[in-house]
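Section 5.1 Outputs to date
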Amino acid sequence: MRILYKIYANDALTTGMRGIVFCHMLQLISTTELATRSGLSRRHVPRMAAAGEIPGARRTVTKAHWVFELNHELEAWICFQRIRKQSGADGIPKQRLVSLGRDWRRLLGIYDRLLSISRSGTETRLFTPEQDESTRWKKIEELLTTQGALPPQLEEIIFHFGATGSKPALRSLDRPEKISLSRIPDSAHHTALSSKKGGVPSRKNESFSAAPRLNKRQKTPCVALNINELTNYGRPIVNGILSYLRKNPRWNIPIVNNRAFLTINQLTKWKGDGIIGEFYGYSAAEKIARLGIPAVNLSGYPANSSFPSIFSFPLPDNTAVGTLAADHLIKLHRPVFLFFGDQCEYSKIRYHAFEKRIVESGGTAEHYRVLEHSSQGDVTDSSLYLSVLKKYTEPVSIFAATDRIALGVLLACNKLKRKVPEDVAILGCDNEEIICQISDPGISSIDWDPFRIGYIAAEYLDNIMRGRPTQDTTTPQPQMKVVLRGSSDAYATVDKDLASAMQFIREHASEPIYVPDVVKACGISRRKLEALFSKYLQRGIYEEIRAIHIASAEQLLVNTQLSLAEIARQSGFNSVAALEGAFKQKHGCYARPFRLRNTQA
């Protein structure tokens, strides 16, 4: 019997942070149902769960029983167990089952490939659009356990993900550490370039050749990463790269000191097929160009014709970042606009776009560079901003090039007893959640969708190495947005209770919340809160909740390929019927036609 649980987790935050309650809706099944569906013994399932062999396994509150989250991975695991149980049946080619090996994750690759073929519109597709996920897994089981020859498509896909060594096994994004990556010998990091190879060419008459194409005989390219995965925006970029590798040919990624990160100096001694990194300035780009291999630069540093092997990636669009920041702060109607940035190229681009939009609106923007005369220092040091803030006594709006700079500005405001956002409105960039939420009030920030940028960058480099057109991509472009928190919340200047209610609704946009939940979070009567919404927003609390949920669903429909059931769950609707009804009421059409219309557009 399938069970639906509500699991609440209280996250106790550090001093100065408000308590936040996260609520997730999970669909769980019991040990008995999992044993029935997978064909295993009921006694065997808890043992496998305790050994960590079953995805999504978790103990109940009493620790007496196991329950399992019914998701994409568990469906693959169930299908894999049922197929293995029939491995001894007569008439089923053993090679077909042997090719699956002992890794149930290979079925995820087969499923994703069949699903992508069905969406491509080809005539020979094994999945149909009206099938749900459970039906598709049963179809895979039926095909793999049927006597006789397989459809050509499926035969080719099984060979592609087979255990013959031609292609490595697929891996789960939830466990990226299990990817087998090539390890660079420690000695390679300490040895200088051999003089027999001619050394490093002189800068005077130096010429850099264009990036060579990947040798067709080379099955697994070796690609290095120069992205700091320890930062809040670096991790999603790396996860986006891994997401691309899950669905496409795999790379070998070198590991140094237990990190998939090579410094510029380490890269100069490394030999491989491609690089994805952040190369700030001429000197770093010059060192990478000497390698003569294709490199995708995510730093925003402009392309240089002297370095034909370095491809300046156009994302994130820093011009769009600056424009979005200006549009957000203009709505606050402050007389003064300030920009705090650093010496990096992306900071300069963001400022010029920010200033241009402010001037177009009839205002002016002042530019201040942090640590302009110092090569070392911490941009979160409040003393760097005190002298500037003392110059302005009237309310100001500040755009910081990074969230770390925004945190330094906020700490300076606290020292000067300047209220945020009443006296100083602050907007950061990169949406580093720890930094943005550890402060009080929280720092509003621009999220430039680093996960999708990592995915597109990996696809971009793969096309370059294999000689394919770089513009040959169907991946949706990154969706940039302002993650609104207290530091630039216009409602905070109007009424604290209204701002608290709006913040609660925005933070729980993916959960099925109701009016009593909002009232309880604010700590005032429902009548008073309804009056505030009616006075300042001209709509009620329920209408605001519904608007936030619909906006979240619209983003998922246009920018992802998730099913309607999954979109309904992630956008706070209790069912697909509720989602469809909301879209019909707002747009005059249901969710599927809305997705088709906006995707084509």
